[in-house]
Amino acid sequence: MKLILKLILNAVAVLVLANILPGATVDNYVSALIVAVVIAVLNAIVKPILVILTLPVTVITLGLFLLVINAGIILLADYFIDGFYVKGWIWALIFSVLLSVFQSILHTILLKDKN
């Protein structure tokens, strides 16, 4: 149940960001939910592999290269999903940073309601 609620909250965050940012668009609610699922799967499977492969660069840049990895995950989601479009690397980077901020805010609100 908690996983479904997190996915719905992530889909809401994707919808809000797509409406705010001119460089990102989502066609409908179903596409936003699919984007949330695909990003969750990519973060669970692809991101750890990329982090391990780029560990020296990540250490040299003091972790800032993880932002590039997150932007790459967003662009991969753009590639896999027809109803989700991001214009380029800069918009994917902005989208990923703002998505992380929105997710942390929404998940904190969710955890406060549980206590």
UniProtKB/TrEMBL annotation:
Tell whether Glycoprotein is among the UniProt keywords.
Answer: no
Keyword Transmembrane among record annotations: yes
Could you tell me which PANTHER family the record lists for this protein?
A: SLR0284 PROTEIN (PTHR37309:SF1)
Ordered alphabetically, the record's keywords are: Membrane, Transmembrane, Transmembrane helix
Q: Which organism is it from?
A: Aquimarina gracilis
Q: Which parts of the chain span the membrane according to its record?
A: 28-46, 53-77, 89-111
Any Pfam family from its record, for instance, is Phage_holin_4_2
Name of the protein: Phage holin family protein
